[in-house]
Amino acid sequence: MQFKLLVAFVEDSSTEAVMKEARRAGATGATIINNARGEGINKQRTFFGMQLETQRDVLLFVVEEHLARKVLERIAKAGGFDEEPGKGIAIQVAVEDAVGVAHQVERLKGKVEEEL
Q1: Which of 34, 36, 44, 80 qualifies as a cystine partner to 52, CB 3.0-4.6 A?
Q2: Quick check: 116 pLDDT over 60?
Q3: CA of 57: how far to CAs of 15, 65, 113, in Å?
């Protein structure tokens, strides 16, 4: 079984909704890194000229490759990534090898066969 790594940078207020949709799409869990900081094309500033930064969460999903695109699309929709700049971003990266995922393989065998 092959896997993909999905990395999503989301507003902390969207984390729960994104996690819920990722699970519905087949993700078995994630590692969540709280309070990351991001910067887009245009820096946001307050009226005092200071930077206004919103806190982000980084969600790391190791997902079976046949489910990865579906999970990616669902988290993008849940996070509203394409609705306006700065809402979030997600990427998908091929995983060459992984250990510690045997429990996921057993749980996903039936689901992946249904998807194919």
Answers
A1: 44
A2: no
A3: 7, 23, 32
